[in-house]
Amino acid sequence: MALFSSEDETKYGVIIDIGSGSVLAAIVESDPNKNYPTIVWSKREYGPLKQIDSLEQSAKSIITSLLNVLMELDSQGKKALSNKGKLSHAQVTVAAPWSYTVSKSISYKNEESFSITKPFISKLLRMARKKVQEELKENEKIHNLGLDLVSRTTADIVANGYSIILTGKQEANLVKVIELSVVVQQSIAKALDDVKNNIFPKIDLQKYSFMLALFYVVSDLYESMNDCCLVDVTFEATEIGIVRDGVLQYCTHTPFGMVSLARELSSILSIPIEEALSHLKSGNIELLLSKFTEKKQKDVSATLLAYESRLISLFQETGDKLTIPKTVFVHGDVGFTKFLRPYIESAGRKVTKSSHLVYDITKDMIDGYYDKQTKESLIKNNQDTAMLVSAQFFHKRNYEHKFEQL
């Protein structure tokens, strides 16, 4: 049978998730009558746990993993799809440090009311895009990474302080537009274009940042949640997204995640990185430390406090004069969020001098969407959480019509 098809009631798509240290490819069945998608087939390949000296070498490792999982998709994935249906969609999400989500707003004010027309909004959006391009050139850290703009969307149109859907009939004396742009590391962006041309020539490959996918999944789960902080912890990075007035306003990250931390624990305790990672995931770090000397316990405590300091620095950089919102949603591999929670709570308290409500987004997503039997299966099988977020993002909204792919 042909591999690709046009839009159908139940759609089948390929989702690719590029994490900081791994790549996933999966085939997803999305039935609009269900609250959640069905994973037909999936494969995640992890990069080396050892320290890689340069970001360029890390990117090459990620591209190798990307090509390997897509080879599996072309053989095993196709077999799993069998006679279920035909692929009609392809979506990729890219996590930090390989992607940035840039939010830009442009405002216009006049003493007298004026009509909010499509040409007027288009002009404001062009100004916002110019600001994005200028920032990409001026920001030395971003510029040195070599990033390509891959997609953008109009996140919000605000007239006299209220969000509106543009009809061409509204009037106001103050208008603001907010546009979200996704930029991806150039070599990875090029590899994705090659994937599209060689493997998915007949369908579009929609490209997003993982933080955007996380934002929309949280927005769907908590429709009244207008202000929150999103925290995405991957193997080699920790990224935050600040949401104000229901819009993702600012993102930043530190290139340090759970494998980075496991690597340091491995060095201090002279144990394999895999073992250190396992203890972090189980949440039993105290049990591990009880077997070592007081000196090593102090060294580990100092390392954990250093990670908390990284969180504090992230929480202090919000893109505006406000502190991080009171509500914090955390995403990470199953187990890591249990370990991370006290450090996130402590870091938030040190920044704002107040307590925060910290939620495990993966748990809430599974509880909110999946039936009891499927939920038990996901937990038992220690399901890939980033895949669940990306698949839910693919399932819940027809985003390809909202985003402009560049």
Write the layout of secondary structure elements.
Blueprint: E1 11-18, E2 22-30, E3 38-46, H1 55-81, E4 87-94, E5 99-115, H2 118-138, H3 140-145, E6 147-159, E7 162-163, E8 171-185, H4 186-198, E9 205-209, H5 210-221, E10 228-233, E11 238-244, E12 247-254, H6 258-269, H7 273-282, H8 285-289, H9 294-316, E13 327-331, H10 336-352, E14 357-360, H11 361-369, H12 372-380, H13 385-396, E15 404-405
Parallel strand pairs: 1-4, 4-9, 10-13, 13-14
Antiparallel strand pairs: 1-2, 2-3, 5-8, 6-7, 6-8, 6-15, 10-11, 11-12
Describe this structure in words.
It is a single chain. By secondary structure, the protein is of the alpha/beta class. The protein has 13 helices and 15 strands. The strands form three sheets. A five-stranded mixed beta sheet has the order 3-2-1-4-9, with helices on both faces. Strands 5, 6, 7, 8 and 15 form a five-stranded antiparallel beta sheet that branches. Strands 12-11-10-13-14 form a five-stranded mixed beta sheet, sandwiched between helices. The protein starts with 10 loop residues before the first strand and ends with a strand. The model is unreliable at 1-7 (pLDDT under 50).
Structural class: alpha/beta
- What percentage of the residues does DSSP assign to strands (E)? 25-35%
Helix content bin = 40-55%
**Overall mean pLDDT score?**
89
The total of helices stands at 13
Largest sheet: 5 strands, mixed
Please provide the count of β strands: 15
Runs in which pLDDT lies below 50 for 5 or more consecutive residues are: 1-7
Rg, nearest Å: 22 Å
Dominant shape: globular
- The order of strands across the largest sheet is 3-2-1-4-9
